Amino acid sequence: MLANNMTHVSSSHRNPTCPKCNGFYVTKEHDRQHRNPLILDCGHTFCEGCLVKMTRETKTSVECPDCKRVTHLPQGEASVRNLWPDVYITGWILCQQRMLLNQELEKLTPAGMVQSTGIRNPSEGEKMCRECFRRLAVCKCDKCDVIMCHGCFVKVHSKSNTLKQHQALPMTMDESLQLTQDCALHEGRELEYYCEDDRTPICSKCVIVGDHKGHVITSMEEKNKTVFTEMEPALHLANKVVRKLIKVDKSLTDFFPDSKTETATVITEIREHFQGLHGLLQAREKQLIEEVHAAYKEGIEPLESLKQQMQGERMKLEIAIRAAQRVLNNNNEVTLNARQILDRLNQAKEIPCIVLPRDTETTNKISFIRDGSFPTSILSHGEVQGKSQVRATWHTLSEMPAEIMNDDDDGLEGQTPTDTISIVSTPYSQESEDVVIEDEEECSVAGGVEFVQKSSDLAGSYQHTGQQPSVPRCRIRGKNEFVTVTHIVNPCKFMVQLKEDQATLRKLSRQINSWANTSRAKEIPTEVKPGDLVIVKYTRDEDWYRGRVKQVLGKGNVNKMELEVLYIDYGNSEVVGLERVRNMQTRFQNHPEFMVECSLFDIIPPDTGGWSKAATQQFCKMTDNKTLYMTVIREVNNVLHVDLSKPAIESTKNEVPISIRDALVFLELAQFVTPESGNITGKPAVIRQYIKPEPHYEGEVFNVIVTSVTDPHHFYIQECMFPGKIGDVSTYFAEMMNKMQKVYKKQNSMDLWTIYCPKKDMVCSCQYSSDNMFYRAIITNLPGRKQVDVVYVDFGNRERVHYSRLRVLLDEFLILPAQAVKCKLVDVAPKDSSKTWSENAKQWWSEKVNLSKFTVKIAEVTENKVYSVVLMKEYNEGGPQISMNSKLVTKGHAISTGDRSRPFSEEQLQHMSAGSQESLTDSSTRSSSLLLGRESSSVSTESLSSAVSLTPGTSPRKLLSPAPDGSLSDSSSGAKKKSRLTPNQKKKSKPQSSSEENPDVEVKIGHFLDPSFFYVYIVDETLNKLMEDMEEEYCDSDPQWISWDEETYCAARRPEDRKWYRARITKIVHKNLVEVFLVDFGFQETVQTSELRSLRKDFSQSAAFSFPCHLADVVPAGDQSNWSRTACEFMLDETRSKKLYIKKKGEKVKMSMPVDLILETDVPESALEPARKSYTSLIEMMKDSGLVIPAPGALSGKKTPVKVQLKTYPIKFYDPPIPPNDNSFIGIPVYVDFSAIVYLQEVQQDEEFKEMSEEIQMRFIDSDPHKFEDMEWQLNQACIAFFHLDQQWYRAKILSLEPHCVKVKFVDFGNCERVSYDKIRADVEDFMYLPPQCFECVLHNTIPNTESGKWPKGTLDYLHKMCVTKPCVIDVVERVPEEPLKVKVMLPDRQDLSSVLEREGLVIKEDSLLELILNSEEIEKVLKTKNPYRCAPMFCLGEYFHVLITHVEIPNVVYYQHTRYSGDEADERSDEINEQLQKLEQMWVELNEAGPISPPLQRPRPGMMCCAQYGFDHCWYRGLVITSPDHQSQVLVLYVDFGTSEVVMLDRVRSLPSEFHSLPAQAQRLVLSGISHPPQDSSWSRQAQEEMLRVTGAKVVQCCVKRLDPLQGELFSTEGDWTNARLVYQQLIDDGVLHFQEDSDLQDETLSGTCAIELEEVEDLGVVEEEKEDSLSDVEKAPSGLVVVEVDRLEGEQTTE
């Protein structure tokens, strides 16, 4: 198993990777450990992140992706971190990190120095660098006379311009070959003579005083003349050999073995093998890897040696060649030894200079051989065989044929090594100007593009020896750069500038213009010739630029002389007068030409006529003034062959860049040279895709709209959103459509988002031809002629459009899945034998279903995700659903192929006929009513006073209307007649804030923006009746797919409350989305057109009930231009729950009425006054609160502000509350928060707290607020805050700080509230002596009865109602530091609060067996109605028999197997039982062989036979499907032979082979007679389940059947005789864990059974024989996987939960 570990080490320099995610393993990275290598039980290694993800799917185990072995993780994700780390991989990672660190440290050498591992000792003949003394000298400075290494030469000679002129001469290998030689005997004297006797060169001193005195001496000059005739052929031969050596040097690397091919694969194999063996084999592993490298080195050393020898011979020949050239060019050279040079040249023929490939032995390659004897020979495990082969042979020129000798490279012909040297410098550039296009025929200006009459040669085409800028740097294939196009001749000839060079070019341009405008630059050149560099004033912008003279015109007359110049930084040219030209200074020539000539790679014109004007103009349009991404493909004759593309933009990060080449080819303006030219990278482009929609499953039913129709087998639906289903999708879709129109219809977005090069399967936005709106689409085909075929993914319809209608789809529009779903009708087929639908069938189908609403039921899902469905429609209210499948068959357009398309019955036909007679809704969308159009101008003072006429005591009906916050609020539709107040009562009221007169008209606030703009609507019974009638009219109406226009009146359904309102269309957002104004309430909403209906004529007769208003003569306090949030919230809070009456305060201003709102409040009666109603002005209330001030010029009783003396307060924080020490006390719940945390106050006579509360009220009731700018509030700071409900001050602490308000928590009561900054005080120091008086508690063992685990508002309201402010007995069950107390609450009526909530179905106990109970009910239902298995042999009623309890489903439901019978007990029935038990054991073995290879269960449904893999022991057992698959592809399976059930994944469920069908199910489900949960509990508890498992699980007991349907009975202990037998669970009944109730009908049912026991048989029954050993052994013989004591499994489930 370990040897098969597939954790990969991709190379010797990369970390190992996880085989699951292919990510590199890493060690602990801060607190992130998601890449740690962990080992499973099987020995395979994966990263922690992958294991956590796999554990989330399987909960308590993880299956190895390699070997499928399961590793159990009882604590789920928490158990993943307990897995053992792979120490081998961890150590490898640490070693790699250290090695990388050392490599980086070695790079930290001084600037300019060549990296070296240390100082080396020179060998004989080697010389060290005289600068660093660390490296060998490789060159000599001709001026400094110092030998240096290359790094030191560059470092020393780069410090000044003078030193930069020095040349580095290579050091010779043979001092005798130096051009100028000194005498060996007399230092410093040149060799000027030649001794004929000794045949050696000598100096003048040797002639006079040396050993050569008297010898025949000739001058070196005379001696050289004798070898001149032999020099030239030898020189030619040496040059040829040098060229061969240069060519071989370039190609020699092809003969070097590829390290990755030769060694990496072998080393990877070694690492994979040794990884499983860990550290024990590391020593041997290192040894084997060294052998691999040694074998590789053995094959490389000959090549390395030959290469060094080749370089030495080449250097010698180059020196000899230079000496020979010098001798031949200067016959007077007397210091050279011509004979020695000739000998060296002649030796060239013996030098190997040709290399040829050699056949290598494929069987002797380097490989790794595993050794199977590693347990005993661990240190010699494995071996490396083979070696790298030498793949070339060397030959001289004389050894090879003439054709090989003469195959020199043309490019090198006639060149010497010195001829190929070039200077490389860095190019510069400038901001791109307008792109210039050259046309060869005419001069015109079209579309802002300049066309020059004559095309001419570009920079770099002139061969001249004069002045020239530095040569641009060479380009490398595959180089990517950002560029701008500056000049265009055609797509295969244009100029670009590098984006990175713009800053330098701008600086250069400023310097040129600055110099050209000075007096020094006024001199006009008199002599100009082609090729000269000049400064030219451009005619279009009058700025100076660098240029080169191309042609001189009018040379005869200096005054009329003109020059044709090329702007060398841009590429364009023009003819200018001599007065616009200046000589270029030398400093301006130091920069290279910034233009780079380019050509689009491998494209040509579509015909032989050359590039068309349209192609050039389109190329200009796509490149003009744009930054483009240039990829260099190759360079030919200094022209870069490139691909230009638009760079990816931020809004479409994953979009493939648009290639200009591909765009021109698509537009048929160009064509590729070869089909392969289109793909430069060789890799397929990554195509963005829409998110896949959420799948539907067989049997689902939901509402849809048919959006596109082809025929009954090809149509698309879009799911409708209705109340009770999440509406975010429809809302987001509407918002997305609105935003798409805004984005793509902007003027400047045309070119930005246009797709010039569409691709198949590309997502896009397409402009629909019918309405010119943009929709999401996908390209399906490219038919040519600039046309594309698209499918609109949200509607399903198809269209062929011009490419100009396509736009790039932004990433934000990809979030929503495609909304259109492809469907086909199930069980229908065309009547035509050709299996094609007739035109009549298509037309009828389209008319009946297109754009109509239906209910759809999924019948099946095909492999290509097409849903086979049944379409149903309700033709009239209360009638049955009509199947369109059946109607299609009934109308004769199709034939039925199944039950779901049977023709209609007579009753259905009559129903349809009746439904068709109903009147259709008028499709007209315009209302002729004039009253409805005056909703904002028809309200006057008279109409306000007479709009409502109600008699005293009328109780108007409630009307659900939009509240200011957008939700629904209950508002009264009428008002009782107001009673007049007495003069005494008026006197007691505040004159500035109260009015005792009865206001006129009652109103409610509808849409609210701020006090300067809000809508009010009149409370009127007429409005109530209108809303009811509209709801009745439109509640079940079908969508009207008609064209809507702006300013049309209609009925609209508001998305928030799904109610119908009168509305006016204010804006058509797009085809399916409109903005409407609800004329009776003032709201503006965005709705889909499917939610609009034509307004019935009588609904438009009454005037609009809402009109715009503003509070009269007031402006905001402080900033008089903006309303504060506090002022807006104050107005909403004060008007939300009170009756409002409107008071007109002037004439309309800009259609808005100035008003004051009068608030009605009830004043309770007192000892001196009866109950009455008070009327208060909202404007006066806001003035008193300091939120508004009178408008300038308005009369007002403005208060004089009180000056507050500044004071600083210490910042205080409350101590934590102190809960009671007693575990039982009386407390009062004062608040319940949204997490069901109950805040308790202990009941005690604490006068101190009461006194503190009174003191707080006295101090702060008339206190002045702190100035906001003088206070710096902090979180959790102690303060005193004002509670709005009782108008009192309380201790609080700050929870959050917001711009206009602060959120506080009242520490003595637990509730929170947002208050304005003027409602809190910081001087709390005197009230800190008491700790907070309330503490947090939670109900013990109680959780909400919801799937999400969140507490619903209804439950919290009920909890609040039951306990808050009521004295309760509190029993503390558990105390955990820094957590709420877990308590039991006994209500005043002695009821347990948790039990009360449980009985109401609002909560469940935390240890409840609700899931097991629900599963038990499902199992009971399936076993009763859909059980395909036969039952095991049954005993008669009242008969006792031995059974083995195999499973406890819930405490009162168990499963049993019969035990084996032997001896005297054997009879026909017991023989049958024994036979079946034996077959069960045999079947278990066979099933575990057949189960894993059985086919998957297709479309599992309740009642299907299956075999499933049990999660506890991973063995296969017979099963019964209980539930259909859920969204996680899981089903509940009952193992019929043991009674165990579990939820398993579909991949662990297989079809049951037919040979296993016949054996009856061996587990019988038994309901225990008279057993139920205790009365005080609402359901079974986990304690009861655990105790029942303990006393019955996996035990042999006696069973007595009491009832057959359902099977009920009792279980008795096997100890003693049956006359005094004791129930196995009797002790649990005595302890109160179970409740037992005697069955009164037991005797009757027993006697009426089919096998009633005869009286004499009962009398003859004696003591039951002791149980035989054979029967007791059944526990051991049964398969061990399912017969287990399930307490352990239950505890595991509890831990997981």
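Above is the first protein from milestone M3; the second protein from the same milestone is given next.
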Amino acid sequence: MAIVLPAEWIKNWEKGGRNEFLQLCRALSEDKSHDSLTFRDIQQALYELSSHVVRGNLKHEQASGVLADIIEFREDMPSILADAFCILDIETSCLEEKTKRDCFTQLVLSCLYLVSDTVLKERLDPETLESLGLIKQSQQFNQKSVKIKTKLFYKQQKFNLLREENEGYAKLIAELGQDLSGNITSDLILENIKSLIGCFNLDPNRVLDIILEVYECRPEYDDFFVPLIESYMYMCEPQTLCHILGFKFKFYQDPSGETPSSLYRVAAVLLQHNLIDLEDLYVHLLPGDNAIIEEHKREIVEAKQIVRKLTMVVLSSEKTEEKEKEKEKEEEKTEKPPDNQKLGLLEALLKIGDWQHAQSIMDQMPPFYATSHKPIAIALCQLVHVTIEPLYRRVGVPKGAKGSPISPLPNKRAPKQADSFEDLRKEVFNMLCYLGPHLSHDPILFAKVVRLGKAFMKEFQSDGSKQEDKEKMEVLFSCVLSITDQVLLPSLSLMDCNACMSEELWGMFKTFPYQYRYRLYGQWKNETYNSHPLLVKVKAQTIDRAKYIMKRLTKENVKPSGRQIGKLSHANPTILFDYILSQIQKYDNLITPVVDSLKYLTSLNYDVLAYCIIEALANPEKERMKHDDTTISSWLQSLASFCGAVFRKYPIELAGLLQYVANQLKAGKSFDLLILKEVVQKMAGIEITEEMTMEQLEAMTGGEQLKAEGGYFGQIRNTKKSSQRLKDALLDHDLALPLCLLMAQQRNGVIFQEGGEKHLKLVGKLYDQCHDTLVQFGGFLASNLSTEDYIKRVPSIDVLCNEFHTPHDAAFFLSRPMYAHQISSKYDELKKAEKGNKQQHKVHKYITACELVMAPVHEAVISLHPPKVWDDISPQFYATFWSLTMYDLAVPHSSYDREVNKLKVQMKAIDDNQEMPPNKKKKEKERCTALQDKLLEEEKKQLEHVQRVLQRLKLEKDNWLLAKSTKNETITKFLQLCIFPRCIFSAIDAVYCAHFVELVHQQKTPNFSTLLCYDRVFSDIIYTVASCTENEASRYGRFLCCMLETVTRWHSDRVIYEKECGNYPGFLTILRATGFDGGNKADQLDYENFRHVVHKWHYKLTKASVHCLETGEYTHIRNILIVLTKILPWYPKVLNLGQALERRVHKICQEEKEKRPDLYALAMGYSGQLKSRKPFMIPENEFHHKDPPARNAVAATVQNGPGGAGMPTSLTINTAKLEESAAEETDKLKEKSQGTVKVINKTVNATPKVTTSNGNSASNSKIIKEKDDKEKSGKEKDKEKKEKIPATTPEAKALGKDGKDKPKEERANKDEKPREIKEKTPKSDKEKEKAKKEEKASKEEKSKTIVTTIESKSVTEKEREKEPSREKDVAKDMKSKENTKGGEKIPVAGSLKSPVPRSETSECEREQKRRKVDIHSSPSHSSTVKDNLNELKDSSTKHYINHTTPTLSKSKEREVDKKDLDKSRERSREREKKEEKDRKDRKRDHSNSDREVPQDSTKRRKEENGTTGSSKHSKSESPSDSPRSNEKEREKSKSKSSGKEKGDSIKAEKMEKSSSGSKKESRHDKEKEKKEKRDSTGGKEEKKHHKSSDKHR
């Protein structure tokens, strides 16, 4: 310790040391900042001063003088000085130096007046005190202090206890037990008690104990005893009361002891009045907190074991043992558990309303542990009752209810009662949260709380409150939701099937938006049941009971089972429905009984069911596809079906489900559309099925009543309410249009986004599902929304397509009802305005209404397509086509008659029924009569409407198709933008499209070629079929069926044909580019030629079908089988085509039996139906005359337009084959061709435009021109060859294009097709020779006639050919690319662009027109035209695959053969040699080029001749060596001689081409090769067929 007094001060004490010391002490005394430090410094200073005196450095007088001065500086200065003396006393007493001790004694003596005696007696040693004279003897002093200490600390005070002083205690008890009702106060009694204690020397603690005992017995005198105890406690230590109470509780802690409730009450009151602390008392209570936690854990474990037992499968032998064990356990349990004093105290606190202390006790226990004891739960419920009473009386009591008011607690310290919702937040919500699921003990309180919630929601949802209030209300609302989640729903689970509570709760729940409700149900189902052991047990028991009921549920016991389900559902709907749904997903046959058994549910339960369904649907763990990845999972299908049934039958809110579907669509998932489909089907009665019969379809084209009666499989009745509910849900939540748009967009999403990794079959299924649901949903909206609602929600067509990116077909589908609504309302307005009643007036008004409504639509549609489109068809025509429906075009009279007759039969049956009571009879008859009247009225109304529409169309038709381009292009656009998209939209649309085409024909629409239109439709079905989904194929089949029906009707009878087609512009065979349609009768297609055309179409269909069946592709086979099944009534009609089909289908049956069972089933089904149709098939010669007159005969070649470009690329290569197959046919063809030419010329010009139906129309025009040129260039090559073979004729040339396909056709025409497959043996040489000779003969004959024309043409031809020679190569290349793109034979779609303008085609046209005149006069001219036509025709063939040529009769061929046989032989041999040379030259040229084109081509030729395909049959490697090719060469040589110049020039050209464009060609060839390989099987078959035909000959 630092020295405070420097030595200088002591030395110069008198001079300055004293003053320095005084200043130091003053400074230290005044320094208040650090008390402990200054205190120590003063002590140090005083000690140092004194020690200087002891050491003799300072005199004691000097020291005492200065000490006297500083003693006043601080109050405690004497004590500090005494401390310093005490230390020096100890130090000096140990020293041996006497002087120092003496100095010390003198110092103390001189300072006695500064420090009091008592302080010194405390601090100094007895010996020192004696020497100072403060005590007499130190020994006596010591003895005295020992005595005092003993008395103070060790001697016990003696009180009189009860036994010793019974009088005093008796008087005390009498004092406390007297009648307290008078003016006796606690103060008065306290004075008496004090007197008694003093008089009888009573133990004060014992007195306190007796006061508590008496209080226990007289609990009603709180106001007396509490102040008494409070006053008495002033005389005791504060802990005494707590200890006495603790002692009392201890007394009852024996295992057998039971703490009386009076003691709990006294303790509670004392706690409430803060006379004792809870923490002090709590430690005296048993059991300890650890024991409570252990017990809680044990309960949870037990609950889980119970669950495990219930879920375990127990065998019967084990069951008995289990039961015995359980009994023993229960007996053990019945032994009473020790008393829980903490809970007893808690209950007492709750009863007197001390919520604060009660809360703190509960906080020390596990959650809900306290309230799981019924007395506590009930006490807490009672407290809540009291607290909410005023508010409940004000807002909660239902009208008409009396109610029993609850009086408030007498206790002033109880929680304040709630007068407003805000007050509930203070205490009530908290109390309820502590109650948790145990509110179930008091259903009345449950109802009160729910009613308060309802009243609050009413206030919350009413507007007009201030911002601050709103915020408060928001907070309160979240509190209400929390209470619902934590208290109300768990409590409902523990209530024993209380349906009233469930309904009461729904009263509040229905005011919540469904999002909140579902959130609550989710918590209830997935969280709540795990929060408490009791709930865990309840969940297990519910599942157990649900299993029991579901095992026994059948259709027969629906009612009793339904009641059990109802009972079980009132308390635990989530668990029950979860189990029921899991069963439905496994066993779909449970759906009907379950739906029927749900009729005893409460509204809340229905809502929970909706949530459970959505949760089951959204289950992320479940796969939506079956393991094969090609079909939708059965669980999803079952759930969807259940959804539809349940939502229809019961009033369940749909918003959540619909929003779920919308959200799934937004996320790009379309699986769940299945649900929407089912819901709409069941609730609105709108069925979507591809399996509709034609009768049903016909009924669907009538009015609403007819649809309902005859349009659906199941008579769906009573959908009025359910469809209204569905409509309301859609409109209230604004889901009607969004769902439509999402579905329309998702159709493509299925393919391009969702489809990714999925199996093609599944993608098709999803696409169909999406599409069907859209059609169904749109139908529902159209029939259920009011006009205003619909128009308000559906935007205009351009907005739909351009902004919402809705596909056009879907956009028009949605808009169509709107137009119909608008037109009818406008029409009604106009009718009202003028009363004119004549039919003419009405029609005029109708047309005006249409113009008003449709004019903006005509404007709007222009933006949907590129401007080029509107050159071919007018926007008006486009809009008219898309806006009309079958209802507008025709009245289904037969359907109306059928339904009316059914009703008549029903009425007769009712009359004949003897058992039916008369009043029921009357009712039924009235119903039937009313229906009948409705139907007849509807029919009349529709008839008038149809007449008006037809009048309107009559007026419009002249503006429909513009004459800006060829008819062919017009047809292309019409098919591409109208027919194809719509015919696969729905079954009714398919029928509509067919009808519309017929209607346009009947209206004699200018610029519309019916012939071309039908030809396009029938000639190329491969691509269309291949690109359809399953349902689209079915609709396309329906469309073809209706088209065939019309064609068959015309084909069946000359009279009908003459009447309906004879003079119609649609059947002109000259197709001009201008609008001029006038033509003489000769320009019309006559009946016989029409029959040839129809045969061609049948043949085309056969070829396409066979092709599809042979691809091995799943989609092709499935779709073509579906289409064939649909068109079965009208096709096949010709026996040989039918047989060919039958064999192919039989082959499919064999091949697919093990591999693809669904294809097998389809094929077997079709095969069976086909066999049953066989008796109705007719031979070909009955179907059309095979020897038609020379003129006008081959109209059939109309095919050209979409002509069969089956194998577009195989031009040069296929000629070999072509020639071979065509040879036999050529004579016939030649003759027919004369007639055909006209049609062909026209059609041909038109064709190039065709493009694929959904191709990009913008590029069409260019493409088409190019195609023309390319085709021409490619085809001219062909022509050269063909010209060398006069026999090749237009058809044969088309064949050149079609390569393999054409031979097939011709054979088929000769009834030889069926043999094609059977005969696999090669022709014998003799036969071949014979055939060759015949062909030669015929060719020679023809060649003579042709020579002149060929020569005349050859000049122009040469010129034309020279120019585009380069382009030809390019075109070839392009063609090959195009064709290979699709993998199979694909028509060259609108993707080529060539520099050659269209003028060439027009030139051809002009030439054709010029030549047409000659056609009639001389046969030679006809061949010219043929050539010209071939050129064009080939161009057409390029586009559309399978178009075939008309067939020629055998008889004619034979005649010609005989005549010309001899002449021709010699000539043909010469020509043959030349031709061979040419070929070899050409081969050489090819081989010189970089790539080995020639090999390819020879290979291909070989293939076509069957050489590579079946080497057995081949005799020689190159086509030129084979006998058949020889024929061809002969033919060629003939043609060469007839048109030698031309032939030479062509040859030269060809050589040039082959060398210069060899690279391109090689690519081209390779692609061709691929194609041919693909079709090689077909080729072989054809060959065989050919051979067989020769044999016949």
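Note on the second protein: The chain has a mean pLDDT of 75.
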